[in-house]
Write a structure and sequence with these properties.
Blueprint (H helix, E strand, L loop, with lengths): L8 E5 L3 H13 L3 E3 L7 E4 L11 E4 L8 E3 L5 H12 L14 H7 L5 H11 L4 H8 L3 H15 L4 H10 L6
Parallel strand pairs: 1-2, 1-3, 3-4, 4-5
Helix pairs in contact: 4-5, 4-6, 4-7, 5-6, 6-7
Length: 176
């Protein structure tokens, strides 16, 4: 037997009456009951405008200027609104999705991406091991260790083993 989710009591806060009616319709489509602000709501759906202090946690649609615990983009679906209202009523925070554009250039300059083996070699350097000792510990040849050390120097912009270790520690690439 599946439990039916509880209907929330949701107030609508918007400066424009037409906008308020539209938000009330979204609340109803989300399966919740629309109540007045003074009616002890579980949550509030707002247009993000200046509504003053609110008696319950709010979800603002289309605005990120407020400090509401919930923020959704304009055009959010009834399912998204339902989830956001339930989340803020439970004390959680909901934010609009950030841009999925990754900035690899900035990331790779400040925090180089090391292969797992390079990270192991860097840790061995941090322990003060020679190439031969690191090779024994890692079960690889000394030439392979040398290859990884050169790659570390290039990625970290280091000229010495000590400098590579210092930069790796500073960037939290490994721990001693």
């Amino acid at each position: 037997m599946t439990a039916v989710p509880r209907r929330l009591r949701v107030a609508v806060a918007a400066g424009d009456p037409a906008r308020r009616d539209h938000l009330a319709l979204l609340v109803t489509r989300s399966g919740h009951q629309v109540v007045e602000l003074a009616g002890s709501p579980d949550a509030i759906l707002s247009d993000g405008g200046d509504t003053g202090p609110l008696p319950a946690p709010a979800v603002a649609i289309g605005s990120d200027q407020r400090d509401d615990p919930g923020q959704l983009p304009e055009g959010a679906t009834a399912t998204q609104i339902d989830a956001a209202l339930r989340a803020v009523a439970a004390g959680l925070v909901v934010r609009k999705a950030q841009s999925r554009t990754l900035h690899f250039e900035a990331l790779s300059e400040e925090y180089p991406l090391l292969t797992p083996r390079e990270a192991e070699v860097l840790a061995a350097l941090g322990d003060g091991l020679s190439n031969k000792e690191a090779a024994r510990r890692l079960g690889i040849s000394p030439n392979t260790v040398k290859f990884h050390v050169e790659a570390l120097f290039r990625k970290l912009g280091a000229g010495t083993r000590a400098e590579a270790v210092a930069k790796g520690l500073k960037r939290n690439l490994f721990e001693i």
